[in-house]
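Can't paste images in this forum, so I'm doing it all in text. The chain is below; anyone willing to post the predicted C-alpha cells underneath?
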Amino acid sequence: MADIPTTTFTDRTGKEFLIRTAQTADAENLLSYIRAVADETEFFVLESDEFPPTVEAERTWVQDHVDHPGKILLVAEAEGHIIGNISFEAGPSRRIAHRGNLGISVTRAWRGRGVGTALLQRLLKWAEANPIIEKVALEVFATNDSAIRLYKKLGFIEQGVARKEVKLGPGRHVDVLSMYRFVKQL
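Text version of the structure:
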C-alpha cells in the first residue's frame, strides 16, 4: 500500500499547502480538478472530456493506486481544494516493475510557487524508499520549459525525443521529451 505522511509546506508567497496520499473519497474532486487543469493548458495529452467519464471510474483508478505497492497518487491541497497532483505507476510485468512513469499537474493559480517541486520531491522520496522502484521516468512536451527546468533541477536526464508526437490541431504538432532519474545506486 502506497502511503506517505501528510506534510505541510509554505509556498513562495507565504501561503500554506499540504501534500497527502489521495484516497477514494477524493475521486470526485480529483476528476473535477484534472478536467479544469486540462482546460487551462495545452501541455496535457488528454483533453478534459477524455478523462474517466464517471466518478466511479476515477474512484477505481484511485483505489488501484492505493492498493498497488508500485503505484502512488498524491494530492496538494490548499484551503480544502486540490491545487496539484502527482501519480506514479511502476511497470506492469516483472522485467519492468523496477521502473515507472509519473504524471504531474498544478493548477494555473499555483504554478511557479513551489507546489510542483514539493510534489516531485515527495514522490522521489517515496520511490527511493520503495524496495521495487529503481528508475522514475516521464514524458514532457518539448515546449513546456518550466516543467523541463524543474525536472532537470531535480536530477532528471533527457533520454530521447519523439518528433511531432502530439497533434494539438491541424498543422500543430509538438515534440515530446523522455526523461528519467535513477533513485537507487545500480
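The chain has four helices and eight strands. The CA atoms of residues 74 and 103 lie 11 Å apart.
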